[in-house]
Amino acid sequence: MTNAVPQDNNKRMRATRTPVTVQNSFHLTEATFYVDEAGLFSKDVYRRVRRKLCGVPGCECQMPYAIAQAEDLGGFRRLPEDMRQKLGLIRFPNIKYAEDNA
After folding, report:
1. Taking the chain, what is the end-to-end CA distance rounded to the nearest angstrom?
2. Over the chain, what is the mean pLDDT?
């Protein structure tokens, strides 16, 4: 027995992903990744984007704001609040956000 997701859900999930393009002006590199409607992306995506923007170990270059300030949520990262607002991403009422404590 497989745990297949119905086709309708797959279409909905693809439709709710927002592309984010970041650039490293020091290395002249660029990476595009996708976030969900809450601004979340996986740690694997985070590592891949960091490696693509700057693959030099110990480099002192500045990472783009979206990557440098991404909030660590265990297995996921989340874009900073002002960037989520600029992209028009929604907030979920049942999730406790760090900025709500300030």
Report:
1. 47
2. 79
Spatial contact of 22 and 58, defined as CB atoms under 8 Å apart: no
Over the chain (102 residues), the average pLDDT of each successive run of 10 is: 46 68 92 91 93 89 88 90 82 60 58
- Cα–Cα separations (whole angstroms), residue 64 to 24, 39, 60, 100: 6, 16, 13, 24
Structure tokens at 44: 């694997």
List of residues 6+ apart from 1 with CB closer than 8 A: none
Question: What's the per-residue H, E or C state across the chain?
Answer: CCCCCCHHHHHHHHHCCEEEEEEECCCCEEEEEEECCCCEEEHHHHHHHHHHHCCCCCCCCCCCHHHHCCEECCCEEECCHHHHHHHCCCCCCCCCCHHHHC
pTM of the model: 0.69
pLDDT digits (tens, 9 = 90+) for 72-94: 998 899 999 888 888 878 666 66
